[in-house]
Each structure stands twice: as C-alpha cells, then as structure tokens.
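Section 4.2 – Deliverable D4.2 (structural model, holo form)

The reporting period included a commitment to supply a predicted holo structure for the target in complex with coenzyme A. Inputs used:
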Amino acid sequence: MIYKNSTGDISSDMLEGFFVDWPNPPSPETHLILLNKSSKVITAIDDHTNQVVGFITAISDGVLSAYIPFLEVLPEYKNKGIGKELVNRMLKELADIYMIDLCCDDDLVSYYDTFGMTKTNGMVLRNYKMQVGNI
Ligand SMILES: CC(C)(COP(=O)(O)OP(=O)(O)OC[C@H]1O[C@@H](n2cnc3c(N)ncnc32)[C@H](O)[C@@H]1OP(=O)(O)O)[C@@H](O)C(=O)NCCC(=O)NCCS
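Output (structure tokens):
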C-alpha cells in the first residue's frame, strides 16, 4: 500500500467504487475535484492495481480549526488497518491545529475514541438534492 499526501498523480479512473450506499454519489471526476480542493488529502493506493482504495480529507483555515469531512476505505480493503493509517497520518498533518472536528454515526464513536477524539454534539444540514456535487 502506498500513501500519498498530494493528488498530482491521481486521475479520476483511479477513483472507482467510493461513496458506498450514497443514493446519489458524486462521479469519480467530481471526487477528484473534491480531493484537489481540500486543504489536506491523503490517499491509500494499492500498488498492484494502481487504484485508490482509501482516502481522507480535511478542510482547514490553517490557523485554529480543521474539519474532516471524508474518510472511506473500499469494502474489500476494510479491516486491514488502512483507515487507521489514514487517520493517524491526517492527525499528524493537523498537529498544529487547535480544533479538529468530524461527525460520525454512533457505531463509529468507539473507532474515533481510539485516536483520542471525544464525543460531542454536532448539528448538520443536508441539501440532499446536491448530494451528487455542484460540478
Ligand atoms: C470507517 C472505515 C474508514 C474504517 O476503515 P478500515 O480500514 O476498515 O479501518 P481499520 O482497519 O483501521 O480499523 C478497523 C477497526 O475499526 C472497526 N470499525 C470499522 N468500521 C466500523 C464501523 N462502521 N463500526 C464500528 N467499528 C468499525 C473494525 O471493527 C476494526 O476494529 P478492530 O481493529 O478492533 O478489529 C471504513 O469502515 C469505511 O470506509 N466505512 C464506510 C465509510 C465511513 O463510515 N466513513 C467514516 C465517516 S465518519
């Protein structure tokens, strides 16, 4: 597995299969734009297939706050420690930032606990008709 902090070598045909269970998922092309526009991105690439099999992004003001909107590992690559590696690498990238926030479902609270994160309240708004992206 190769981990990369930049998207320079990544093309949209390397981004198949993500956004599992999303009724209206963004296309691989939109996914690539999202990666390029994020403040920080780390991808996990299977060096045998040259496909991206996991990714994490952060958007940040670079001063005090960062938000982690996306972490996903492809189903056939789950439970191999890839998610853990992506989170650890991102937290290292954000080590000089005061607030590092993300939202997750209840079943992932114990997962994020293991990285020293704590549960809090969050409020979200979802504009479902834009789930595919605005590109
Ligand atoms: C969450 C996710 C990124 C974890 O990636 P991964 O590479 O499988 O995770 P790791 O191999 O580092 O860790 C696996 C551990 O996390 C636990 N875990 C993974 N997903 C979990 C879930 N949905 N609920 C509870 N535990 C989960 C596994 O049980 C395993 O525990 P163990 O180490 O005690 O056996 C991956 O399951 C995924 O892409 N899920 C769908 C998208 C998603 O929910 N993203 C998070 C948005 S906040």
